[in-house]
């Protein structure tokens, strides 16, 4: 892991273009048809309104945004036993910086927010290609009780299992 030059901090609204660039690079690296990536990309980008609703953090390498994560309070109806939880919207790392521990650092920040903000757990709705990452972080898959209502790839980690 090469994280010694990575700095994590809250995002600044002035970094929105750099944040969206990282998201675009990450989404375009997914193993999906090009058309699907192109059509879905706008739904992954953040805008100024998102900065009011979400807590957004960035990972910097040599002063450049190379990773981003964002979260907010989860809808209790989507969590096990309707517990208060943090909903991790996503972790995006520029593909040029993959396999350097940046995603792990961003995930740890989300876990820290669970603890410091008094949530009972962490909920993630992930793209299928991210399953391995979230499982390796100690999360477990939630089976949708109602597939029409719930996102197919949901993961949960209780606060007591967060280190």
Description:
Strands 1-2-3-4-5-7-6 form a 7-stranded mixed β-sheet. It is globular. The protein has helices spanning 16-28, 34-44, 50-53, 102-116, 131-136; strands at residues 6-10, 55-61, 64-73, 85-93, 121-125, 140-142, 154-158. The relative contact order is 0.15. Helix 1 (16-28) runs antiparallel to helix 2. The chain is of the alpha+beta class and 163 residues long. It has a single domain, classed as 3-Layer(aba) Sandwich (Aminopeptidase).
> For the CA atoms, what is the radius of gyration?
15 Å
Percent strand equals 25-35%
Major sheet attributes: 7 strands, mixed
The CATH topology: Aminopeptidase
**CATH class category label:** Alpha Beta
Low-confidence stretches: none
Write down the overall mean pLDDT.
89
Helix content: 25-40%
Quickly give the structural class: alpha+beta
Give the quaternary arrangement of the chains. Answer: single chain
SSE series: EHHHEEEHEHEE
Question: What is the 3D form?
Answer: globular
Write the layout of secondary structure elements.
Blueprint: E1 6-10, H1 16-28, H2 34-44, H3 50-53, E2 55-61, E3 64-73, E4 85-93, H4 102-116, E5 121-125, H5 131-136, E6 140-142, E7 154-158
Parallel strand pairs: 4-5
Antiparallel strand pairs: 1-2, 2-3, 3-4, 5-7, 6-7
Summarize the model shown.
It contains 5 helices and 7 strands; from the N terminus they run E-H-H-H-E-E-E-H-E-H-E-E.
């Amino acid at each position: 892991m090469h994280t010694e030059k990575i700095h994590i901090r809250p995002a600044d609204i002035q970094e929105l273009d750099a944040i969206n660039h990282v998201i675009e690079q990450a989404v375009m690296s997914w193993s999906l048809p090009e058309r699907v990536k192109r059509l879905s990309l706008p739904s992954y980008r953040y805008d100024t309104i998102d900065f009011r609703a979400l807590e957004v953090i960035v990972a910097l390498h040599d002063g450049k945004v190379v990773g981003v994560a964002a979260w907010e309070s989860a809808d209790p109806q989507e969590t096990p036993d309707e517990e208060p939880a943090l909903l991790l919207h996503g972790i995006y790392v520029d593909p040029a910086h993959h396999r350097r521990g940046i995603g792990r650092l961003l995930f740890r920040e989300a876990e820290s927010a669970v603890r410091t903000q008094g949530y009972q757990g962490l909920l993630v709705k992930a793209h299928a290609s991210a399953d391995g990452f979230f499982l390796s972080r100690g999360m477990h898959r939630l089976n949708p009780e109602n597939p029409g209502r719930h996102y197919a790839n949901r993961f949960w980690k209780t606060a007591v299992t967060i280190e």
